[in-house]
Every structure is written in structure tokens, then in C-alpha cells.
């Protein structure tokens, strides 16, 4: 008689395995970043990683937790890489160090460590640093050979539209930071994150709900404004390929700790986040809205999950 394994667990999994796959999925975006803007991002990744692991070790020791067990899960490294990619690669080194330390010490360990933090640590770091140091967090590397820094395409577009008689077409024609689809060079970085994100879907590290709901809602909302008044509102393609849209859709909003867990909840969570991202980009005071949308929706996660829980087997739904 041949015996078969139980079908309930299909393959072995662990936090380390999941985090390692996330790091691998970030590599295409990092490679595109290096190709278009130079190796500065690698220095920031290394600096953030060393800071994150160091702060993680200090907090684990202070809390009496086993260092080897928790340091090997790679969660601190994932946070570090996301911070390095979310922060300008030409920002002062202490901006990266301070932001990473805040993410690990405050946003993660003061709430109880891995699995207990209600807010995405990397986005907490970004939000604090851009509010505290807006000028240092607003200058990004340029893909132009005769320029070292530039504003983001979204920031350039928003600032340019404030001029009299300016249109989206005129701003994009005059500003050299724009490429074929969005920002010059940034299109390739967004494409790299898209490739990595699709691989995470194929590996079943994440589900389709959040990426599809976020990108779909962002397309619908930006498309509605663009069709209504294309002279003053950018096309959906620019919003998808500029800023942190792809990084957010596949790597930030999908954080398994701070995001919704129910299928319907994920759809609501991501759709609302996309709406917030668009409103902040177009009508807010910051060049991108991914970080603030993440934190605002993190607050709503317990309520959304509670209201979208499927009925227990054998019981009628509400």
C-alpha cells in the first residue's frame, strides 16, 4: 500500500526563504538603476544593510532574543534594500543611516519585532525623513550626461503645470527629465521592478490581488482625469512607470505583516491606496504618495480584515 503525504502543506516554507526571494526579485530593478544612474545605489544598499543588521542585533540583544535565529531571517535586509531604493541615491549618507535606524528600532522593534509591526518600516523611515529633510529627499540622480541631480518627473510635472498656460505636453517637451514613457532612465528601473514582481507572483510569494488592484485602480483614476482634461493631467502610462508605482505594487503594499490578509480585503486595501497615491501626487505637497498611502492604509488594515473575513466553514455568512 502506497502512502501519500498530507495535501495541507504543499512545500516547505520559511521567513528566510520568502525574504530571500524578495531580495532576488529586487535585483532586476537594482541592475537597471546601476545601468541608468551609476553605482551610487550599491553604496546606499550596502550602507542601509549594515545599519539595519547592526540595529537589529542591538535590539535583539536588548530584548533577550537569540541573535542567530532572527538575524538569519533576512527581514532586516529586505527593509534596508527598500529604504535604499526609496531614498535618493545621492542623499547624504547619514540620511540613509538615520532612516534605516528609525525603521528597525522604532517602526519594527518597539512594536514587538517581526510580525508585530502595524506599519511598513521602510515607509515609516521615508515619511519621517521627507518631512524632516524635504530638500535633501527631493534631489535624485539624473540620467543626463551633463547633470548630476534632478527633480523626479512627477515633481517636475507638478511644478511646471503651475506656470501660466502650461500643459502636460509643454512641460514634458521642455523638461529633459522625461523619456519615452515617464522619467528618463526611471522607466527602465520601473520595468525591472515589474519583472521582479511578476517573478514573485510566479513563485507564489505574493498573490495577484494587491498588484492588480493597485495598478488597475491607478490606471482607471489617472485615465479618467486624463480623458477629461488631458492638458492638465498626465496619462496613466506616466503614473504607472514613474515614481514608486511598480515598487509599491509588488514590494511595499504586499508586505505580509502590515497589509490586509483576506482576498477581498487586499483588493479594497490596494484600490484605496492607489486612489490616495494619485490624489497626493496630483493635489498634494509631495512628489509621490506611495509612502503616505501605505501608512494611511496600514491604519485601516484591522478594520478591513475584520469586515472582509470569510464565514467560518459550517457557518452562514453575515
Which features characterize this protein?
318 residues; two-stranded antiparallel ribbon; 62% helix; single chain; 1% strand; mainly alpha
Average pLDDT across residues?
A: 89
Shape: globular
Poorly predicted runs of 5 or more residues: none
Q: Characterize the biggest β-sheet.
A: 2 strands, antiparallel
- Give me the secondary-structure category: mainly alpha
Number of helices: 14
Oligomer: single chain
Radius of gyration: 20 Å
Q: List the helices and strands in order.
A: HHHHHHEEHHHHHHHH
Distance from N terminus to C terminus (CA atoms, Å) equals 45 Å
Strand content: under 5%
Strand order of the largest sheet: 1-2
Helix content: 55-70%
How many domain regions?
A: 2
Tell me the total number of β-strands: 2
Would you summarize the structure shown here?
This protein has 318 residues and is mainly α.
Describe this structure in words.
The chain is mostly helical. The chain folds into 2 domains: 15-132, no CATH class; 143-307, no CATH class. The protein has 14 helices and 2 strands, in the order ααααααββαααααααα. It has helices spanning 15-37, 40-62, 67-71, 75-86, 93-108, 121-132, 153-161, 168-174, 186-202, 209-228, 236-241, 245-252, 263-283, 290-307, and strands at 140-141, 149-150. The chain has a two-stranded antiparallel sheet with strand order 1-2. A hairpin with a 7-residue loop joins β1 (140-141) and β2. α6 packs across α14. The longest helix is centred in the N-terminal third of the chain and has 23 residues, at 15-37. It is globular and about 60 Å long. The termini are far apart. The model has no long low-confidence stretch (mean pLDDT 89).
Amino acid at each position: 500500500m502506497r502512502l501519500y503525504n498530507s495535501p495541507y502543506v504543499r512545500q516547505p516554507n520559511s521567513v528566510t526563504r520568502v525574504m530571500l526571494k524578495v531580495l532576488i526579485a529586487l535585483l532586476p530593478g537594482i541592475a537597471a538603476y546601476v545601468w541608468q544612474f551609476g553605482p551610487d545605489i550599491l553604496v546606499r544598499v550596502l550602507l542601509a544593510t549594515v545599519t539595519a543588521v547592526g540595529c537589529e542585533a542591538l535590539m535583539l540583544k536588548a530584548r533577550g532574543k537569540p541573535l542567530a535565529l532572527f538575524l538569519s531571517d533576512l527581514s532586516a535586509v529586505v527593509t534596508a534594500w527598500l529604504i535604499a531604493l526609496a531614498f535618493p541615491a545621492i542623499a547624504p549618507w547619514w540620511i540613509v543611516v538615520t532612516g534605516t535606524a528609525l525603521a528597525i528600532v522604532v517602526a519594527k522593534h518597539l512594536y514587538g519585532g517581526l510580525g508585530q509591526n502595524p506599519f511598513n518600516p521602510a515607509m515609516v523611515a521615508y515619511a519621517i525623513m521627507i518631512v524632516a529633510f524635504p530638500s535633501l529627499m527631493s534631489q535624485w540622480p539624473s540620467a543626463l550626461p551633463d547633470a548630476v541631480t534632478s527633480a523626479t518627473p512627477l515633481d517636475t510635472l507638478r511644478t511646471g503645470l503651475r506656470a501660466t498656460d502650461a500643459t502636460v505636453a509643454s512641460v514634458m517637451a521642455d523638461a529633459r527629465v522625461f523619456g519615452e514613457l515617464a522619467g528618463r532612465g526611471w522607466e527602465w528601473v520601473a520595468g525591472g521592478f515589474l519583472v521582479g514582481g511578476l517573478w514573485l507572483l510566479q513563485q507564489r510569494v505574493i498573490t495577484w490581488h494587491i498588484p492588480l488592484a493597485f495598478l488597475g485602480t491607478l490606471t482607471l483614476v489617472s485615465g479618467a482625469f486624463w480623458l477629461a482634461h488631458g492638458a492638465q493631467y498626465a496619462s496613466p502610462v506616466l503614473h504607472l512607470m514613474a515614481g514608486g508605482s511598480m515598487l509599491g505594487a509588488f514590494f511595499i503594499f504586499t508586505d505580509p505583516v502590515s497589509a490586509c490578509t483576506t482576498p477581498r480585503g487586499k483588493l479594497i486595501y490596494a484600490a484605496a491606496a492607489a486612489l490616495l497615491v494619485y490624489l497626493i501626487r496630483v493635489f498634494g505637497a509631495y512628489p509621490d504618495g506611495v509612502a503616505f498611502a501605505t501608512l494611511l492604509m496600514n491604519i485601516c488594515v484591522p478594520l478591513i480584515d475584520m469586515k472582509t473575513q470569510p464565514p467560518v466553514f459550517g457557518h452562514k455568512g453575515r
